[in-house]
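This part of the workshop introduces the protein records we will be handling. A record pairs a protein's sequence with a compact description of its fold. Comparing a sequence with its tokens is the quickest way to learn the format. The record below serves as our worked example for the rest of this section:
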Amino acid sequence: MIEVLDLRHGILDIPSLTISPGSTVVIGLNGSGKTTLLRILAGIVAPEKGTVLIDGQEIFSIDVGWLNEYPDRNMLFGKVSDEIASPLRFRGMDCPAVTLQVQKIKEELGIAHLSERRTRELSGGEKVMVSLATAMVTNPLILVLDESDSHLDEESAAVVWSAVRRSPSRYRIICTQDMEPATLADKVIHLEAGKIACSGPPGEIFPGLSEGCLYPFSWRVSDAAGIQ
């Protein structure tokens, strides 16, 4: 269980929040505090006030896979294969094990053909996929993605969502502007002006958003068909 208690940081004001294992999608309008919350849950920034515990442990002692909206900010190495392997090498894993794990994640994401490419030569979508592979290669306890699908075409975005759903990571926390995959999450957290407007299963959250832009398009179609 992820426990957030008395969190205050910038715009965020969250007295209490719990996140169970599984997939959690954070939604909200621009400026609602989504990225700030994800950065805190990933341990990238420490909250000004409050605590975040992951299965009873401090976030800074947890293995986290992080992918932000801008893939260029994630890359450290010149070649794709080295970039993906870097988290494993930093942990001192032996070379055969590194090679095996890297090959596995590349095949899962369909990017094996990029292995020898230079990272600076990749397209925006390719950079996202490589950065995702790097975030996932260690099978981290928490996988945090901040609108990483915003640079992808529909096909690539579907690959990302499928890989995230299959990920062995105990917690998968995703911020997105695409409400369609959000309907498949275990939990949705809706932020408004730094506060949690509501949280719960998609079937409980989205009906209350039917009048706004966060309502899934497929649900609008279904609603219209039902009326007709």
About this structure: The longest strand covers residues 2-9. The chain has eight helices and ten strands. The mean pLDDT is 88.
